[in-house]
Amino acid sequence: MPAVEAALRSHPARPTHPDAMSRCIEACYTCAGTCTACGDACLSERDVEGLLACIRQNLDCAAICLATGSVVARSKAGASRQVLESQLSVCAAACRACADECRRHGETHRHCRVCALACNECAQACTEMLAALRAVV
Amino acid sequence: MPAVEAALRSHPARPTHPDAMSRCIEACYTCAGTCTACGDACLSERDVEGLLACIRQNLDCAAICLATGSVVARSKAGASRQVLESQLSVCAAACRACADECRRHGETHRHCRVCALACNECAQACTEMLAALRAVV
Amino acid sequence: MPAVEAALRSHPARPTHPDAMSRCIEACYTCAGTCTACGDACLSERDVEGLLACIRQNLDCAAICLATGSVVARSKAGASRQVLESQLSVCAAACRACADECRRHGETHRHCRVCALACNECAQACTEMLAALRAVV
Amino acid sequence: MPAVEAALRSHPARPTHPDAMSRCIEACYTCAGTCTACGDACLSERDVEGLLACIRQNLDCAAICLATGSVVARSKAGASRQVLESQLSVCAAACRACADECRRHGETHRHCRVCALACNECAQACTEMLAALRAVV
For the residues of C18-69, what is the DSSP string, one character each? Predict the structure, then answer.
């Protein structure tokens, strides 16, 4: 998302890691979109009854990613910095849990395979954002 | 939110704590609405420059509460149960952080005083939901 | 949501209809929570394959209600006022569409019956908010 | 967002316009992220009092874009198809309104200039998605 990064780079508070932030925001939103599409695709599969846990994890992961993306995009100080770090950890955990579930259906359903990758990339981006935050402090 | 509780009580998976769930969902949404209104009121105050941290915490808290409310409303098993517990903890922490910031402006601005209360109630509801979940496991 | 109304009543811009606003915000969030719970309950029903359209409408309605609730909570002027009016119209339409679909399953599933009522109440609250806005202009 | 498009392309209901859908979802999320970052940057500007309308439009536009992105990602039939079309129209209008406001500050603030572009791209993507939907019907 070059637009997000460009906006962050002209932010008067000069965020220390505009690149990690914009990668994390993009990964969160891509993961949310992919999870939403995967959950909808699962609903249309003949074996929908075997995909119920996957659909629920898709929806939870999408909700958590959207919130995380928007929290990452705002400046932090003090207590809100710790909230950001905790939210990034939960987001990474939600993405890993969703990736694990999607991978179970990956041989049968391509959308689950694709979704597992997007979830893993988002978990990775959240982890790198956390590392960047901690390196600064 | 009697409607949410009634929907949960007729859920075929028979959630073990429909009352704690619906109280938590209601508290999350009430907190999100109050934080959104408080942040907008802060923007209109003459001393907006002294309220910037409050506005940002309001917006983060609202985003986290909306995601948490929707995650609480879905059935959980296995790994997604742990994600729920972590998300509830982060939501409680975000609400406490926002309440602390709002309280600093509570003498001057009634909306901040009201918002601190809504945040504290949401933190409490998330904590009680967590206790209910752990009692079952 | 007395907290939302209290926050709006102490807003320095003195919104003209804090009561209609807070009722609308509450109805949007209650509808979002009920739709989320209803969609999850539908996923657990034996006849899930007959409820796919209902689940999708529940999820769309919840997403639209959450956005609408947060847009209603912010002050408007000029072009953003028109955006608010259009968003309220779409929200009312989404709620009516979801209520119609839920009602089709209302005899069999209590959560669908409950959800249809919450959707109708939200459609009504959005319509009243629109009327209040237009009366002022 | 190649992941979103790949998920849509393996959707068993075979959406007729996976390319327009994924472009629209990506534009909605990019716009939401850019608006969130721009609003936060505005809060840090010395002339924050001249940017209040911009901040509010950023927040409204972000909320509407996130909801629209998730509604676009789900299959539609019947009444929910009309809700999708209306939501796309409102999203395009919200983006144009936010772009107009941002452009007013574009000479002074680069983040507003960048945000106006992201808003215009999203308005365009929503309009193209609408055209694709209507061509099919």
Answer: HHHHHHHHHHHHHHHHHHHHHHHHHHHSTTGGGSHHHHHHHHHHHHHHHHHH
Considering only CB atoms, which chain C residues are within 8 Å of D93? 82-83, 86
ipTM exceeds 0.90: yes
| H or E stretch at A36 | helix A18-44
Residue with tokens 């209360």: B117
Tell me whether residue B37 is exposed, middle or buried, using C-beta atoms within 10 angstroms of its C-beta: 0 to 12, 13 to 18, 19 or more: buried
The model's pLDDT over C55-64, given as tens digits with 9 standing for 90+, comes to 999 999 999 9
Using CB atoms, which residue from D43, D49, D52 is nearest to B56?
Answer: D43
Query: Distances in Å between the alpha carbon of D87 and those of A5, C32, D93, D125?
Result: 27, 16, 10, 13
Q: Where are the alpha helices (DSSP H) in A45-109?
A: 52-72, 79-104
Chain B contact for A13 (CB, 8 A cutoff): no
- CA A58 from centre of chain: 11
> Helices D52-72 and D110-136 sit at what angle, rounded to 10 degrees?
30
Residue A40 sits at the chain D interface (C-beta within 8 Å): yes
What one-character DSSP code corresponds to residue B50?
A: G
Residue pair A4/A125 in contact (Cβ under 8 Å)? The answer is: no
pLDDT digits (tens, 9 = 90+) for B6-39: 999 999 999 999 999 999 999 999 999 999 999 9
- Amino acid present at C9: R
